[in-house]
Design goal:
Pathway: Cell wall biogenesis; peptidoglycan biosynthesis. The protein is built from 21 helices and 22 strands. By secondary structure, the chain is an alpha+beta fold.
Length: about 675
Amino acid sequence: MRSLLALVVALWAVALGNDRLTAWINATDLPLLVHATSPEVRDRKGTLLRAYTIEDGIWRMAVTPDQVDPLFYRMLVAYEDKRFWDHPGVDILAVTRAVAQRLWHGRLVSGASTLTMQTARLLEHGTTGQWQGKLRQMRVALALERNLSKDQILSLYSLLAPYGGNVEGVRAASLIWLGKEPRRLTPAEAALLVALPQAPESRRPDRHPKTARAARNRVMLRMAGEGVIPLAAARSDALDPSPEGRHPMPLLAPHLSDRALALGPGRHDLTVDATLQQSLENLARTHARRLDPRLSLAIVLADHQTGEILASVGAPDYAGTENQGFVDMTTAQRSPGSTLKPLVYGLAFDRGLAHPETLILDTPVHFGTYAPQNFDGEYRGELSARRALQLSLNIPVVRLTETLGPAHVMAALRAAGLKPALQGGSPGLALSLGGVGLTLEEMTQLYAALANAGTARPLHWLRGTALPAQQRLLSGAAAWQIQSILADITPPPAAGSAGRIAWKTGTSYGHRDALALGWDGRFVAGVWIGRPDGTPVPGAFGAALAAPVLFEALGRASPRAEPLRPPPPETLITTNARLPAHLQRFGPRAETPALQLTFPPDGVTLQVASQGVPVKLRGGIPPYTLMADGAVLATGLMRPQFLAPVAGPGFTTLSVIDSTGQSGRATVELH
């Protein structure tokens, strides 16, 4: 009892300015005032995308007074420490009253702990059961008041107050128990956040919701009695249900957030738009439910005018196991398939090798031992470069690549800021058909350059990033010509009319990757679908799988679609007949290989099956016409192999004529 009286006397001495006691306070070793907080990743407007726990799995979110509704602080001070703004850290009047009540009643009737003392206890993880511990808290509280402002002390309390389980601090508590930032709180919500730290475990809303609600209501009624909130608000809010479980912490852009966290702890502000990110994550999940569960899906969407990535979806389900959702498929190197073809055509236009209306051959061709074939095995003969790109034919683009030189195409990829990966040493002609490793993010960056009048700028997702200078990849005229060609491709069903979006699909060798990339007047997007482990997906085509996702993604970014760029003044827009002579056809006409009927050989005897006689051709320009003994059997044949519907027995002369008038024939005996 004497120690209690001595404590009161000492505190009054402090209040009256005793020099020795003042020196004792000034000599206090303060606990560590800086504490680890959960790393945060935020969007372009400051919205929380994702946060990470600190050591021991604790949620402790950085908080400043301006991030919390002032109502919370008014309630907190009124409920816990009425004279907080006036006392020096210890409320001497409250201590005197508590000691007097203890002497009179023989037991503790009311406490005297201030918010500053509670903060001192939180800083030192101390207890309040012994007077020695209480004395230490008072000394630290007095020292804190001499070193920190009242707002700083409130900030420390708001950061460290326990809220049950692994939750510390008012901001983490608001996100987990209320599912919202504490910037705007109702009286009931503020009262709950005031009540929980008094008994954080016994009042946990997920385990003891009735106890938490009762404590909340007691705070509200007392606050109404003291005029902090209206009595009507306290009575009406007391009827509101209190939380009965935890809200999940935000988990938007999880893969991109992981990349930001790898840069270090603290807060990372991204260029991402949280609303658009959420919309595209929902889009990815919706489409993924229609696919084989082993397939993943990735989306990148950016503003091609600024280079800012506005949404990045690495997988439809970050926690998925069957489709390896933990793998960020926006950064995985995969084959781009046919999506490199627009670059090759753009380079050819830019260097005066071709024009969109230039005629180019789609016929069988050999480059040494390399004999490219079209995806469908057919040949279209002579057609415009525009049509060849729209049909995504392989042979015309390989012809252009051979003239440009694969090294020149590879240099253009690097000039666009990409890091193409080759399995071999130097690039070959298959480069333009997807024979190189690139990421979806890189391909979207390439298409951003096509959309941005041929100027390449790095796509970036971290705000404040220092960016290298822009690079001229194509002339404005060549970039517009590519845009014009791709915008005329018929969109997927229910995607609207052509002309709004320039787009291209790709399917890699073995159906391992299905891609679609495209842009409107402001946004560029890329979509990838496949298996992260690279296993073939039979029947997977970019046009069927990825293209609908691409159009919907761009539609969610800009429902009306920003108009595409108009042609620059120097663009040559004309017909083939009005082109300069050297641009009317790509390569000499003499390069057309002679038509040969390689099977059946002339004079052979065949046992005829019911389907007919197999015919195989080499060279010539389709479409082909088939004749038997001078009678036309079929016209418009595009493939170099087919069945001739003739029956034996006897001798028959088979003739094939190509679109240029070349012919081949063989006389066979049929049994």
